[in-house]
Amino acid sequence: MKNRFKKWQFSKAVFSAIMLLIAVNFMSCNDDELFYDKNEPEWLGASIYQYLEDAGNYETFVKLIDDVGYDEVLSKTGSKTLFVANDEAFSRFFQNNPWNVTSYNDLSLAEKKLILNFGMIDNAYLIETLSNYNDGGTLVYGTAMRRQTANTASDSILFDSYQDVPKSGPLGNVWENNFRNGMYVVKDNSASPIVYFFQKMLTTNGISNADYKVISGKDRSGDDADVFDIRVVERDIVCKNGYIHVLEDVMIPRDNMAEHIHKNPETTIFSDLLDRYTWYQPDYDLTEEYSLVNPGFSDTIYVKSYLQKNFSYTMNGQLLDLDDYLLNFSPGANDYSQSRLQADMGTMMVPTDAAMDEYFNEGAGRILKERYGSWENIPDDIITLFMNRHLRNSFMASVPSQFDDMKDTENSAVPITTGDIESSYIAVNGLVYHTNRVYPPDDYVSIYGPVLFGEKAKVFNWAIRQNDFRLYLNSLENLYSFFVPSDDFFSRYIDPFAFAKDVKGALKYWYNNETNTVNATVYAYDAATGEFGDSINVITNANFLSNRLLDMLDNHIVVDDVENGKNFYFTKENNVLKISGSGTNLKVQAGNDLVNNTDISVLSVFEQANGNTYLIDKPLQTPLRSVYKVLSETPQFSKFYELLNGFPSTSNSVVFVRRTNYYGIDYNIRFFNTFNYTVYVPTNEAIQELIDSGELKTWEEINAIEDATEKLAEIEKMERFLRYHFQDNSIFIGGPTVNNTYQSSTINLDKPIYDTRYGTYINKYFKIGVVQDGNDLFLTTENLDDNESTAQVKKDEGLYNIMARDYVFNGNPSAYREIDGSGSGSNSFTSSEIITSSTAVIHQIDRVLKFE
């Protein structure tokens, strides 16, 4: 401070300013009269009113002060900051203004109040200090851009006729029915702030002159100061009760963002969409205040705002469920800010009517037109996604120099450029960019779009919403293929948990239009004949349905283009789909569809920005057979199965398990862990040959060993031998060609790397070399003996590419009540859950695999 004082020239004005600030510090925040003193020292200078009167070129503004009855206040009391305009500015104002007044005499008393109060701030601020603000006792420097004015809600009460009352939107019928005679409203009951662009704030926030040019349409340079887009031509005029700052033009109150959009004849479509989110709330305090001034007034005044996030809404004592109809913020809130009012405001990108029409009729929005016919017919929850894409919480993160990095609230890029902006409007609560382009949400252009818009995809849309799948499907960074069963053809889907019970069941999912949720009808299912019985129950439990449909969703999504000829594709849940053809001629089957030779037809294909959405005539049914089931029921696998199934139940080496964390349809593989695997099954002859050679003992021989240590060693040897036939990653014959090594399930405990073909380190899993050329599959093991290190899949009996799935449920299916709906609580069928699963493809090979 010492250095700074040395640079000051102690003129009378500067000294007066210092004394004014000292006086202000001792002044009561609640009682301006304490500052009044009839015997102020002469050096303190004139009052604000006296200065304007003496200057001679503020006659219009002085008359305005007189008419409003504020002459005494600005003559003797308080500490004010006042933005004024001179007579020349008023002369220009009367030639062209939004109020259509042509002379001072045309101004109403309310309009005079608006001009005066909107340019008045309580307390005295230099231009430089207006960029600072107090945040809970901490002075924050250089970031302020807004300040509350003396403008009050009672100055701007309007009457909305029945024609003005919104009749669409989630609450449109409520307003239409309750306000047929219109209503008195204020567009917001908070004071209107001014917005200013001073060098200190611009520098602190990295806002360039080029940014301001786009924001305001005007050039600035050096230390220019602007209020909205009006230049300050004379600043920091010191008076005994505050400061005067002279503006180049007359400043009248600005609209908030919502009102500006509503009044703009070029944004009527967007304005109509915004009106859907109107919320009216009675303001009894304002009504009483207004009635005191207007004794004949007997109506209620309502505050108009907009449904917004982080707010709850009640009507007649009931909490409204409006989660899908909330905007990022209310563009009608004058005092809107993301954190502190002084430091930020909102931003809206508002496409012109021409841009909206072009998007809807000729651009990417044609899918909306084909589905709904007009903007008015698009459902509210779908429009909410569109609106929020165009509402930005922070002005500071939305200036033109930030456009390249601009993301929406879901972290998706917004492709706006300065070339998109036709004009801008600085409102009291934010900036409005008028754009010649629409920025549709990712929901509209992603593989989710056809589901969101689809009249026949309500079941999957509900499942997506319930399981928060929108963001995943909307990712434009990946390429997807999404299979969506049509509601019209949603056939019975065999429930995997019910399949594990004595009475097996299938579920037909359907959308309940009365409750706007999904239900499922339960049918008995005969696994032996493949026939469905009568319906025996209807399930409405949302948690149960959400869990089952989540599993279905995971297995109807492929992160790939399924028309590239690979034939086999992994779903998100590690299941595999067999696919051939293209477009509506695509043939797709999941594991159980292949077993039952079920055909799935593609009804429609939608080409989206991140892949294709295929509407299909029935859900894809993943495998219902576990690895245990396939091995135990296939005679050609019997020797391998007997070895796997021979471990003592108390042994840590046991392979097939059915216990906590492993409950499935029957038995699960203990060392599977939510991944996809390949199981190589040697022929019965190859297993028997190994036993006959003495290299492998039978379980009968092992169980006959009396020495416990020796017996344990043989059990561990058996486990390591068998686990070497289980490999990470599923490899299909006919799938993408492969020439690679994959990890087995057997760990190298003691072999040096030079004694293994693939240089496997100790305590790492042994590998298997795999070559799949599209027709055959060949294996090479870690064994360095070439005569015993290779194997080939046997295709002659068709025992290859067999799909299996090991489910993991939340409990033992036998402990739950039957599927007819009997029972409740933790043991009811509807409390069952699919926790996870592992999948495997099984091939028969011509010899055993050896790692030593």
From TrEMBL:
UniProt keyword annotations, A-Z: Signal
PROSITE patterns associated with the record: FAS1
Domain named FAS1: residues: 45-251, 444-620, 624-849
Signal sequence bounds: 1-31
Coiled-coil annotated spans: none
Annotated protein name in UniProt: Fasciclin domain-containing protein
Lineage: Bacteria, Pseudomonadati, Bacteroidota, Bacteroidia, Marinilabiliales
